[in-house]
Amino acid sequence: MKKIQGNNLLISNLCNMKKSGRTAHTVLFYGEKGTGKKLMAEFYTNLLMCNSPINDMPCGTCSACKNIQAGTHPDVIYVETSGKLGGYSVDTARKICSDAFIKPNNDTSCKVYIFRDCHNMDVRTQNTLLKIIEEPPEYAYFIFTSETKTDFLPTIISRCVCFGVSPCTEKQAENALSESSFNPEDIKKAVKCFHGNIGMCTEYINNEDLRRQVDLTKQLADSIIRKDEYALDTALFTLNKNRNDVRTVLSMLDKLIRDSAVLIQDTKANNIGCFREGAVKLSYILTSRQAEKIHYSIERAWHTVECNVNIPLALSALCAEIIETII
Ligand SMILES: [Zn+2]
Question: How are strands ordered across the β-sheet holding 76-78?
Answer without folding.
Answer: 76-78, 111-115, 140-146, 26-30, 161-164
